[in-house]
Predict the structure of Protein phosphatase 4 regulatory subunit 3B.
Amino acid sequence: MSDTRRRVKVYTLNEDRQWDDRGTGHVSSTYVERLKGMSLLVRAESDGSLLLESKINPNTAYQKQQDTLIVWSEAENYDLALSFQEKAGCDEIWEKICQVQGKDPSVEVTQDLIDESEEERFEEMPETSHLIDLPTCELNKLEEIADLVTSVLSSPIRREKLALALENEGYIKKLLQLFQVCENLENTEGLHHLYEIIRGILFLNKATLFEVMFSDECIMDVVGCLEYDPALAQPKRHREFLTKTAKFKEVIPITDSELRQKIHQTYRVQYIQDIILPTPSVFEENFLSTLTSFIFFNKVEIVSMLQEDEKFLSEVFAQLTDEATDDDKRRELVNFFKEFCAFSQTLQPQNRDAFFKTLAKLGILPALEIVMGMDDLQVRSAATDIFSYLVEFSPSMVREFVMQEAQQSDDDILLINVVIEQMICDTDPELGGAVQLMGLLRTLIDPENMLATANVRKCKGKTEKSEFLNFFYNHCMHVLTAPLLANTSEDKCEKDAVVGSNKSNTICPDNYQTAQLLALILELLTFCVEHHTYHIKNYIMNKDLLRRVLVLMNSKHTFLALCALRFMRRIIGLKDEFYNRYITKGNLFEPVINALLDNGTRYNLLNSAVIELFEFIRVEDIKSLTAHIVENFYKALESIEYVQTFKGLKTKYEQEKDRQNQKLNSVPSILRSNRFRRDARALEEDEEMWFNEDEEEEGEAVVPPIEKSKQEDDFPDSYEKFMETKKAKESEDKENLPKRTSAGGFKFTFSHSASAANGANSTNNKSVAAQTSPASSNGSSSKNTNLTTAVTAAKQGSLVGLVDYPDDEEEEEEEETSPRKRPRLGS
């Protein structure tokens, strides 16, 4: 049976009160003739053998626990449990059991957990009597007491009775006096019995008994009893650890004696739960639930008492931020706060809010700023943990602090920049701290948790989102991207382009730790592309960021190349024509195609990711990118036939070309010379003249007017200026970068594709115009101005499949003359 609802583990309780796993199978309830009744059957999922066959007796007490457990006793000392994979399966079988016993399935226990003889015995006794007679507390009775305590654990009713008896007679203190006698006499047998007794009393799970056992007077003797586990050859030395090794550090002296006592008690009880007692199995969790609650409420009380003592907290903050405080003291103060914040997680939400507001009021954030910039690694790590509690509690509170701080401080010492610098300077080879900090930064810059309403107090009417993102991109983004820009610097890339397409010349971070860091930064930038719209768009354009990121496609660390590719994929995934024009103008597919061809025939993640990128463009039919890829790279890609992606792109391109031609043919000839509805293969002479005159104005309009959205209207002009400067620089270098054949066509010199080189060999040294269409020569044959025929014709050919934008002529022309074009493809 493959039904996961009925999938169960079968457990039996062994003599040591530990649950043994009998196997996993599927449970059913059916009538078994041999047992003369409805029974529970479990067949093993491995071989179908019978793991359990148990008749549902009308008088057996079945218990349902934690929604997925059913526990019952078959005989005096034979307890069984079924642990279900799903709650639905547990409910189904529970209903069957209740049906047989005539009970309502809403009950948790089907029978009272005491047998009839006990019921008769207790029935007539007054409630105040002791329901269990405890043996006298003497050395020779210890074995009897141990047997009694362990025997009642399986019956909740008898546990209650025993707890009441122990409480009423002050029995625990008498037992602990016996412990001291046994230890003095070195009575090992007695000490072993006392271990069983004290452990059993803990498992009674009664808060009133815990109050006695964990009092200052008794707790060390309780720990002493638990040292003498009969299973160990030598007793443990827990008391020695608690009294000598574990030191109570008071960063600021605590004057409240009750608070000190609570802190000591909580530490010791936590030690008992975590270190001394064995880890409870899934069925024993309830045994110690009261112990967990005891610790929990102690922590709540400690946090509340400390929080109310503002004098104490003020003193801690004063010392934390005081330059005169020595490093050891500061380390202790930071560790105190870290533990304080960890304790605060136990508070109810409204109390936790009050706690963090108290910390904010006292100045936790400026204090953290100082501490996070310190050299001590342990202090920085603890400060990061505290910062993560604050960000998790209220990202808005942290954002508000850093924006206010920006008005009074330099960028270098802003809290967010301190965090970014810690991320960049993480010395851990695996960058554990950097990963944590990156997660916190992502939370802070995530618009999903920013307030959508205007910030009334500042009366500017700006939302938190617009205000914070403006701040982040103006003051912090340059710090975040600095390592990325430093490792992909422009002069290195230029040098490589001149040398040729030898991969080893590209300067890429080969250091694993640097590569890890750049991958983290790229992950954050990819998140920004997805969530920050025009802020990141503006940044990418101004810094020509995508070109720099794509340098990393040459990294020997494939994970870093994939991060760079993922960044580009996310940009293309937005299907934003603004980005598309930036990619085509900058010829930014070239590093991706180089990486694909350098990868050769290897079928790996890089290969699949690159092909998925092109497949997305094909499926989504992004026309401008399709045209750019086919016109510039199809020769290099046509040999890739193990997927139909590139042939599909060519088909889409040709279909669009035909569609444009049909549209033009249906327009009256008088309109065809209109600039907005031109036929790329039939340019009029005067129109061509117009292009030549217009060349000087190239590169001014990055965004065509019809494309500008409201968000983009207020974009600064810095990108256009950047492109103009770049163009001027490129024209100076033009002579040093011979990339064209004599006819103006580009050579493809990929080492991986022999067919790619054939596209421009000397035997076919004709103009691209002639190769494209005989029609194109009509308009250009008589024209011999400073534009060559080949460039004009190439331009004409490349215009066909593009989206019809008013500025296409200038942009295509600039693309042709740009010496950056295909540095890896150039001869």
